[in-house]
Amino acid sequence: MSRILIIEDDPRIVEFLERGLAAHSHTTVVARDGATARIEALRDDIDLIILDLGLPGDDGLDVLRDLRGQGATTPVLVLTARGGVDNTIIGLDAGADDYLAKPFRFDELLARIRARLRSDSTAAANGVPGELAGGGITLDLGTRRAHVANREVELSAGEFMLLEAFLRNPDQVLSREQLLSQVWGYHHNPGSNVVEVYVGYLRRKLGEDAIATVRGMGYRLGQA
């Protein structure tokens, strides 16, 4: 059983989420404004946070940045009316682990919650979060920092998840569709360029040769 913090001011959505999550053996805590959210999110017994961005008198992105700035590592799933690739990128860069636009399907929300909780449980079961390495890059799963040639590189949430996907699939070419699914949980969206954007971010931080483009197939860690 997991305890999920719902940061949402719409009573209808709160009730819907509470009922649905309870039916799947989750317990919930609710914060309806940014001030309460900042307190509740730092509780030790919160396993995952569902965050709306349109809070009364506050912006959920500011709440998220504040939490990450205080060292909070609890998985955060943004659930918001702000759809589109640009807003998704902004949310991930602010520290979100996943991003789902309203209106949404509850079964998809549950799937994303399971994925985040499973990932978090796996890290906990292994004790120290540990590291992944490949292509001359080391990724610290606890601090979310990469090391390249003795140089430390700080990563946004989206950059971290993308690099983790590459490091968990060494020597494999990952298609754009695979990366969308593994990292962002999207079904294929022909108009989305989020993969290309984040590959570019990683190349600028890790080196242009860090990720190779395999023409007609996708991307692979290391030189072509």
Structural description of this entry:
By secondary structure, this protein is α/β, with parallel strands linked by helices. It has 2 domains: 3-125, Rossmann fold (3-Layer(aba) Sandwich); 131-221, Winged helix-like DNA-binding domain superfamily/Winged helix DNA-binding domain (Arc Repressor Mutant, subunit A, Orthogonal Bundle), CATH 1.10.10.10. The protein has helices spanning 11-23, 34-40, 60-69, 85-94, 106-125, 157-167, 176-184, 194-206, and strands spanning 3-7, 27-31, 48-51, 54-55, 58-59, 76-80, 98-101, 131-134, 137-140, 145-148, 151-154, 211-214, 218-221. The strands form 4 sheets. A 5-stranded parallel sheet has the order 2-1-3-6-7, sandwiched between helices. A 4-stranded antiparallel sheet has the order 8-9-10-11, covered by helices on one side. Helix 2 packs parallel to helix 3, helix 6 (157-167) packs across helix 7 and helix 6 (157-167) packs across helix 8. It is globular. The relative contact order is 0.10.
Short structural description:
The chain is α/β, with parallel strands linked by helices and 224 residues long.
What top-tier CATH class of the largest domain fits best?
A: Alpha Beta
Figure out the total of helices: 8
CATH fold name of the largest domain, please?
Rossmann fold
Strand order of the largest sheet: 2-1-3-6-7
Characterize the main sheet.
Answer: 5 strands, parallel
CATH superfamily of the largest domain: Response regulator
Looking at the structure, what is the overall shape? globular
Radius of gyration: 18 Å
Question: Based on helices, strands and strand pairing, what is the structural class?
Answer: alpha/beta
Query: What is the name of the CATH architecture of the largest domain?
Result: 3-Layer(aba) Sandwich
Strand content: 15-25%
Order of helices and strands: EHEHEEEHEHEHEEEEHHHEE
Number of domains: 2
What is the tally of beta strands?
13
